[in-house]
Specification:
The complex is a heterodimer of chains A (223) and B (218). In chain A, 73% of the residues lie in helices and 0% in strands. Chain A is mainly α. Chain A is flat, with a radius of gyration of 19 Å. Helices cover 85% and strands 0% of the residues of chain B. Chain B is globular. Chain B starts with a helix and ends with a helix. The chains are: A mainly alpha (223), B mainly alpha (218). The interface between A and B is medium-sized, with 29 and 26 residues.
Chain lengths: 223, 218
């Protein structure tokens, strides 16, 4: 119990927040906006996935840079597993978004700058894993992957933060669609949304943490 | 530094002139794909198709052309360069050389394309401006990717896999830019794309300049 409170409090917090998100997300009152209606609840499950993915990709970037400056294989394992978890969150974000879009826009995939950004990001990180698999030598693989991930991260920022601003997006809150800013009057959603972002981010960190520990253990066993 | 870069670019030019298979291969590749487009369409179709085909051909020709820039150097040669050269001079010279090389290829591709599939371009000066900016960024991205692919044990298929996802944001911007130029829109319409293209160029060049020395050290 002491251990739980001292070291693993964030895991408990993750469980509490995710449960809170699921329960409050479906039960709390939401504003009735045209087109969106009840699907607005997807905000707690879809948008938070992208936040989680971005966080994990920043972790990936940091450990990529750390590997390049220190050449420690441990940093590379951190980078790889954070990218893997980020991919998982990205796929979850795509699926939740496609289900939502199917009911709101009438099609699971439309030509929208943010969808293009998401697809490009997924492609770039898939390429990252292909690059990793193509190189046999451990240190060389780590170095190439770190360089590629830094490049991919910068391009991804351009892709999902800069380019969508150029054209109107169909996404809520952009191009005159009702969105987050209109909730300003109705702050109940914020009471669920912000805990949801933190909860899912912690959840992602936990998945990453488990995978890294597994990898480190298997490396220790080999030696 | 400046002198080294110049002499390295000279070396690349000399190699290119002596082994003409390189530029010839890329030219035949792009001309035959243009001819296939001509056989399929037989005349000018419409602006989006023309634009998309042109950029796809440029992209594939660029991938083919730049794939050689590091892959063609053998392990022993690389070791030799490693003892002699500064990585910063190498990446700058390779980037500049690939840009110039690709610019020549692009000029030939565009003129052949106009010959076979018609010329819908209304604002040619802005169109060429878009071509230059786009080709510059593509060649810079692909130069670093080709160095990556070369280090990953000469896997030339890896080049396209690694390069294309990174090029997508650039390609979207440059295709919109050149579509504006083809339709001859007001100059004010270019501004956001222009800023993005310039900043992408700077960004890509800075990234490859910073990251290449790590790649070089083996």
């Amino acid at each position: 119990m002491n251990n739980l409170l001292r070291e693993n409090w964030w895991k408990a917090l993750a469980v509490i927040l995710v449960f809170y998100t699921i329960i409050a997300g479906f039960l709390s009152a939401v504003p009735r906006l045209p087109i969106l209606h009840e699907t607005i609840r997807n905000l707690y499950f879809h948008v938070t996935m992208w936040f989680g993915m971005m966080l994990l990709m920043i972790v990936n970037l940091v450990y990529g840079v750390r590997y390049l400056s220190g050449s420690s294989i441990k940093d590379d394992i951190y980078a790889e597993e954070s990218a893997r978890t980020a991919m998982f969150f990205g796929v979850a974000g795509l699926i939740t978004g496609m289900i939502w879009a199917n009911y709101t826009w009438g099609a699971p995939w439309v030509n929208d700058p943010q969808l293009n950004g998401a697809a490009g990001t997924m492609l770039a990180y898939s390429a990252y894993f292909i690059l990793r698999n193509a190189v046999a030598d451990e240190h060389r693989r780590a170095k190439l992957a770190a360089i590629y991930s830094i490049f991919a991260f910068v391009m991804m920022i351009v892709f999902i933060q800069v380019l969508p601003k150029l054209t109107d997006s169909l996404h809520p809150g952009q191009g005159g669609n009702p969105g987050f800013n209109t909730y300003d009057l109705d702050s109940t959603m914020r009471w669920v949304f912000y805990p949801a972002v933190i909860g899912w981010a912690l959840f992602g960190t936990w998945i990453m943490n488990l995978r890294i520990r597994l990898r480190l253990l298997s490396i220790n066993k080999e030696q | 530094m400046f002198k080294k870069v110049i002499s390295l670019i000279k070396k690349e030019f000399l190699l290119e002139i002596r082994h003409q298979s390189g530029i010839g291969g890329v030219l035949v590749y792009s001309l035959s794909s243009i001819y296939i487009c001509y056989l399929v369409f037989r005349q000018f179709v419409d602006v989006p198709v023309w634009n998309a085909l042109l950029w796809i051909i440029i992209l594939f020709a660029a991938t083919n052309a730049i794939a050689r820039s590091f892959l063609s150097e053998s392990k022993n040669k690389q070791l030799f360069y490693y003892t002699l050269l500064d990585p910063k001079a190498v990446i700058i010279s390779k980037s500049i050389y690939n840009f110039l090389f690709l610019l020549v290829i692009t000029a030939i591709i565009v003129s052949a394309f106009i010959l076979f599939l018609g010329n819908p371009v209304q604002d040619f000066s802005m169109f060429s401006c878009g071509l230059i900016l786009g080709v510059c960024a593509i060649s810079n991205i692909l130069t670093l990717v080709s160095a990556l692919a070369a280090k990953a044990e000469n896997n030339s298929a890896l080049m396209a896999i690694l390069g294309f996802p990174l090029i997508i944001p650039l390609l979207i911007t440059v295709i919109r830019f050149s579509k504006n130029a083809i339709e001859g829109l007001d100059r004010a319409a270019y501004q956001p794309y222009f800023i993005i293209l310039i900043s992408l160029n700077v960004l890509v060049f800075a990234l490859s300049f910073l990251l290449f020395p790590y790649l070089w050290r083996d």
